[in-house]
Specification:
This protein is mostly helical and 457 residues long. It contains 20 helices and 6 strands. It is 63% helix and 5% strand. The strands form 3 sheets. The chain has a two-stranded antiparallel sheet. A two-stranded parallel sheet has the order 3-4. A two-stranded antiparallel sheet has the order 5-6.
Length: 457
């Protein structure tokens, strides 16, 4: 194909350099956005009497035909084309002749690329949000099932206080709800049209940028033409939001990996989302969770590469910015793949509630409740804390639990103890008395589920 920029330059370029310069392998996925943007541009040019209505009609019909042919597989995108913008424009000119040569009036590839990327990422953000909602819905469904399933809550990976599996799962739903908000906010800031900024300094033609922006569903237009073509903040902001999604997916995956091990055995992953060992027939490996955890670094790398690519660029457009698409596209592809697998993995796993409760009973996670019971009897908290620690040490030495320690052993430490302490340190009682807002009671988990389901709707 001929080069759009052949003129002062003769269009000849070293073969290796040409391949190095070519972006069609990456940006060809934006063909729908490129065609939609060109249709809107042609309509604007005709509305402003910059081109004739007849030329605009020929251009629009030609572009729609190209779209239909690519979608149907009748037209293959040429891998030797410089980029998708060149391929679409030159295919249009081959089909409709002279009118096709008028399409690029009052437009540069700089603002055309900026437009296509924003439109493409706008759609990708909406799709990723739908996947996030699917995962949040799966977490809500499983939390509803396990809102009364007692398990140990951990700090420092040490058993700490009683919670429920439902409460634990809803903590992740809250994380993903913030991710949903970040994607929404980033997409809203991105929804400003750069088309009409041209190469960097606008145009001498009497264009109507707002008309074109409205046709394409933008909220407004870039207010500064230099900024309009050189801004890639939206790629970084979306990349940061995607990186945080992966942080949360990785933390969730880590817990699923731990919980499915024989050392915990709180859950069993479905065979559809785990694999076996090539040599050890007894094993069931949490490969999907491990891959999700591993792919987190890839999305972090995309974000860091975007930041590094931008950090030293003078205004306006520089060829360095061709790297933006591969990085942000990869980040979206990776996150979407992980979300697609994680939602059904959560939805199909089996909970081993008896193992969770056994772990809760054996971990002295009612020690704080015992100290609080003593405070209720009038003992200062720090004194109660020390005394409870001594009782835990005695239980450890005896190989027993606080619930099974005889009353005389308690009374040997303090005459404040009486038989009512056993009800106070019962695991179910310890859980149900944690009625503070946001806590682990079944009623609190129900409220949290309702909140997240409202966000999903």
């Amino acid at each position: 194909m001929a080069k759009l920029w052949a003129g002062l330059a003769d269009g000849s370029i070293d073969a290796a350099a040409e391949d190095f310069n070519r972006s069609i392998r990456v940006d060809s996925r934006m063909y729908r956005q490129d065609i939609a943007g060109s249709v809107a541009h042609a309509k604007m040019l005709a509305a402003q009497n910059i081109i004739s209505p007849q030329d605009a009609e020929a251009i629009v019909n030609g572009l729609n035909g190209i779209l239909s042919d690519i979608d149907a597989g009748r037209l293959k995108i040429d891998p030797e084309a410089e980029d998708i913008h060149t391929f679409i424009e030159q295919t249009l000119t081959e089909r409709v002749g002279e009118p096709g040569k008028r399409l690029h009036t009052a437009r540069s590839r700089n603002d055309q690329v900026a437009l296509d990327v924003r439109m493409y990422l706008r759609e990708r953000a909406e799709y990723t949000k739908s996947l996030l909602k699917g995962l949040m819905g799966a977490l809500c469904d499983r939390a509803e099932e396990t809102k009364s399933a007692v398990m140990p809550g951990y700090t420092h990976l040490q058993r700490a206080q009683p919670v429920t599996m439902g409460h634990h799962l809803m903590a992740y739903a809250m994380m993903f709800s913030r991710d949903l908000g970040r994607l929404t906010d980033a997409a809203a800031r991105m929804n400003s049209s750069p088309i009409g900024c041209c190469a960097l300094a606008g145009t001498t033609y009497d264009t109507d940028r707002r008309f074109e922006a409205e046709l394409l569903g933008f909220d407004g237009v870039a207010e500064n033409s230099l900024d309009g073509v050189s801004d890639r903040d939206f790629c970084v902001e979306l990349g940061a939001a995607l990186a945080l999604i992966m942080t949360h997916l990785s933390r969730l995956s880590e817990e699923l990996i731990l919980w499915s091990s024989w050392e915990f055995k709180f859950i069993e992953l479905s065979s559809a989302y785990s694999t076996g060992s090539s040599i050890m027939p007894q094993k069931k490996n949490p490969d999907m969770a491990e891959l999700t955890r591993g792919k987190t670094g890839r999305v972090y790398g995309d974000l860091m590469a975007l930041l590094t690519m931008l950090k030293g660029l003078p205004l306006a457009y520089n060829k360095d910015m061709q790297e933006d698409k591969e990085l942000i596209f990869d980040a979206f592809d990776t996150v979407d793949a992980c979300l697609t697998v994680c939602a059904p993995m959560i939805g199909t796993m089996t909970f081993k509630q008896e193992n969770m409760r056994r772990a809760a009973a054996a971990g002295f996670i009612n020690a704080t409740d015992l100290a609080d019971w003593l405070v209720g009897k009038g003992m200062p908290f720090r004194t109660a804390y020390k005394l409870t620690g001594e009782l835990v040490a005695e239980c450890t030495a005896r190989g027993t639990t606080l619930e099974d320690l005889p009353l005389e052993a308690y009374r040997a430490k303090s005459e404040l103890f009486d038989g009512s302490l056993y009800d106070a340190i019962n695991i179910d009682t310890c859980l149900l008395r944690r009625t503070s807002y946001g806590g682990p009671t079944p009623e609190s988990v129900e409220r949290q589920i309702g909140l997240i389901k409202g966000l999903i709707k």
